[in-house]
Amino acid sequence: MPPSDRIRDHAGQGATTVAAHRTRRRLRADQARQLADLLRHQILTGGFTDDTLPHESTLATDYRASRNTVRLALDLLRAEGLVDRLPGVGTVVVAQKYPHGLDRLMGLAETLHEHGTVTNEVRTMGPAPAPAPVAERLQVKPGTDVLYIERLRRLNGLPLSLDLTYIPLDIGTALLGADLENTDVFRLLETITGQRLGHAEITLEAVNADTHSAAVLEAPRGAAVLMLERLTHLADGRPVDLEFIRFRGDRITMSGLLHRAL
């Protein structure tokens, strides 16, 4: 075989080897992500005794994965802040996410009452002209004063969410002297209006924390937060509460029960 042909043949074999290596690496990364999803579910549902994960070799056997894949999966969970590696102990759960249901209209304290005490730090509260998008959704004229409230909400002392709330002023005025530090706005709205809340329209998306939100939530700047936009109506259909809620993504998990309807 001429030297030039041997060089081309060797180069071709090298390219094949590199491509195969990349394929294996990508496949291992895919498998690690799948395994991390399964382990995350067990972590969040208390599936591990004493919050300690089985040894890597046990996980590899249980999930029919290689040790390298298991290590990559645990690295992903460590990056999320869910687990850590302790010398002489192994991999342990170091953080807890709290369940927030999406199939019932409840305030945060009502939702998380089994997990501890929710307290509210009222950072800003007072009348403010309604921006056009707020006015449209609350069905008031643009520029009309509404009650604006900004609260930092904590669970057992840990920052959990930053809530921005807009309420029509004819209802919101009665909130000015209320105990917002220890009471959900939902309960206060029902007391003030004499009506039950009826339904809410929600939108949930992931956004990066801005400088202000990150500082208030004590989260890294640019960290992913869950943004819940919620417009709540009274039983008679009137919109009374527009909220933009930023949840720390490492401390909350959203869940619900969906029924198929075509």
Features:
35% helix; two-stranded antiparallel ribbon; 8 helices; alpha+beta; 262 residues
Structural notes for this entry:
This protein is α+β, with helices and mostly antiparallel strands and 262 residues long. 35% of the residues lie in helices and 32% in strands. It contains eight helices and ten strands. The protein has helices spanning 3-44, 56-62, 67-79, 108-111, 132-138, 169-172, 185-193, 211-217; strands spanning 83-86, 90-93, 98-101, 118-129, 145-155, 158-168, 197-208, 224-234, 239-248, 252-255. A six-stranded antiparallel β-sheet has the order 4-5-6-9-8-7. The chain has a two-stranded antiparallel sheet with strand order 1-2. A two-stranded parallel ribbon has the order 3-10. A hairpin with a 2-residue loop joins strand 5 (145-155) and strand 6 (158-168). Helix 1 (3-44) packs across helix 3 and helix 2 (56-62) crosses helix 3. The termini are far apart.
Strand order of the largest sheet: 4-5-6-9-8-7
Through-space gap between termini: 67 Å
Number of helices: 8
Q: What's the order of the H and E elements?
A: HHHEEEHEHEEHHEHEEE
Main sheet: strands, sense, barrel: 6 strands, antiparallel
Helix content: 25-40%
The best one-word shape is: elongated
Q: From the helix content, strand content and strand pairing, which structural class follows?
A: alpha+beta
Residue stretches low in confidence (pLDDT < 50, at least 5 long) are: none
In a few lines, what is going on in this structure?
With about 260 residues, the chain is an alpha+beta fold. The protein contains eight helices and ten strands. Helix 1 crosses helix 3 and helix 2 crosses helix 3.
